[in-house]
Amino acid sequence: MIRHMLVLGALGDLAARYLLPALARLREAGELPEGFRVSALARDDQDTPGYREFAGENLAEHAPDTPEAARSGLVEALEYYQADVTDPERIKAALGDSGEPVIVYLALPPAVFAPTIEALGEAGLPEGSRIVVEKPFGEDLESAQKLNRLLHDTFPEEAVFRVDHFLGLQTVQNVLGLRFANRVFEPLWNHDHVERVEIVWDETLALEGRAGYYDSAGALKDMIQNHLLQLLCLVGMEPPLTLHERDLRDRKVDLLRAVRRLSPEEIEELTVRARYTAGRIADREIPAYADEEDVDPERETETFAEVTLFVDNWRWSGVPFTLRSGKALGQDRSEVSIHFKPVPHSTFAPEAKPEPNVLTLGLDPDRISLDIEINGPGESLDLEHLELGSELSPQKIPAYGRLLLGILEGDPTLSIRGDEAEESWRIVEPILEAWNADKVPLREYPAGSGGPS
Ligand code: NDP
User: Fold this and answer.
1) Domain architecture of the chain: domains with CATH
2) Residue owning the nearest CA to atom 12 of ligand 1
3) What stretch of H or E contains 37?
4) pLDDT per residue as tens digits for the range 239-248
5) Is 114 in the pocket of ligand 1 (CB under 6 A)?
6) What share of the chain in percent tops pLDDT 90?
7) Which of 11-15, 350-354, 447-451 has the lowest mean pLDDT?
């Protein structure tokens, strides 16, 4: 395993809230190699003791369940380098002269990805090094292709890890277990039996001070282009031969290639974009998105996006897949639900109306449930609706920990391959273009509501 990691953008939110806590958890689980160390790079005038203090405080806040010994062990392995990471000389200083391969994690604003990759190329990383690129990977198809070309000028594809942390979520990985380790679901997993599929990530969280990033992204780019399309891949793909990265990622790309690029008429009919107005969520007063600090209301950034897609292949022909994500909604709801078709003929009295079965994979908290119909306790042939559900044990290693473990082991199964990233943009780009051209009106919904009506 590689023992040296460079975190570029080490004072940022991602490093503080996710990367350091994930590393501490891996350390606790004994998954970090002997002598593992982190060089933390950022622009602030800071030194190693100051950075260690920053890390200790953030670990106490964001990894309180990780034992103190693991947290302080990680803190001691941190070294700070004040650096503009687009400067190859500063990268060389952080690399040192050991010649050992490194993992370089770009925890940076996307605008800095390209100059940083160029600087890494100029600095010359030791043989066998790996590079980790955060989302969003490009802002449209052309920029994603450009970023891929730039990466491939310096690194072979197997050294590039494009992050989508949803792939590290236990429930997301459970889609594979559920589909391919059980006989009962797969025969029904097609257009003969499935009426529609919903993939939803609704949040009660509003902007929470992240206008700097979010106002230039919006819900479609922030959630649907990456996380929810990844879920669509796992739910819809053909069974891979093995779970080896090549087999799995080939099947995901096949699925993405089968997703229809919506026509202008379909975009008007099958997509919704909206923005929250002022409202109340529990005891919180939420200002209108347009009035949030650092938001440019003229940009018309959507905080709610819904897109219905079709997978034009033998298995899924005609089945709508609705992907939806919104902020400042009245309820947190994150799930994949498979809605089965009604029974072909009801044997019961007309008023009994058997409800179609729904299989739901709750993503947060982790839960699986199946809604079925049975005979109820009343009249002997009455029907009763029953939910068979199970809470899953909490994830021991957080999503970022699972991703980092794959990167340390050199296994890209949980990372996005270059062609996958481009295919995702191919699907989303026409929608973005139509929205930017105002072909779909920007609707509104009060914060705390269920979204636009
Ligand atoms: P932040 O803006 O909080 O942090 C970025 C860090 O990069 C800052 O410390 C910034 O320093 C530093 N930086 C910027 N330019 C340079 C440079 N030229 N040289 C050195 N340091 C530089 O962003 P986040 O941590 O939130 O996000 C980082 C990445 O992670 C983004 O791609 C984001 O999309 C992704 N991400 C973030 C998530 C989150 O919840 N935060 C979740 C999922 C993905 P300075 O203050 O000096 O500008």
Assistant:
1) 4-134 (3.40.50.720), 167-397+417-446 (3.30.360.10)
2) 9
3) strand 37-42
4) 999 999 999 9
5) no
6) 89
7) 350-354
Tens-digit pLDDT profile for residues 83-109: 999 999 999 999 998 899 999 999 999
Query: Tokens representing 398?
Result: 């957080």
Residue from 58, 108, 166, 221 whose mutation best tests the ligand 1 pocket (most atoms within 8 A of CB): 108
How close is the Cα of 8 to the center of ligand 1, in Å? 8
- Contacts of residue 83, Cβ cutoff 8 Å, sequence gap at least 6: 41, 42, 43, 90, 91, 93, 94
Residue ranges of E strands in 77-233: 78-82, 102-106, 130-133, 160-162, 194-202
Ligand 1 contact via 363 beta carbon (within 6 Å): no
Q: Which structure tokens are listed for 211?
A: 């206008």
Reply yes or no on whether 62 is catalytic: no
Q: Tokens 């096949």 belong to which residue? A: 254
Q: Tell me, using a 6 A CB cutoff, whether residue 6 lines ligand 1.
A: no
The candidate with the shortest Cα–Cα distance to 2, out of 107, 96, 99, 141, is: 99
Which tens digit of pLDDT belongs to each residue from 13-70? 999 999 999 999 999 999 999 999 999 999 999 999 999 999 999 999 999 999 999 9
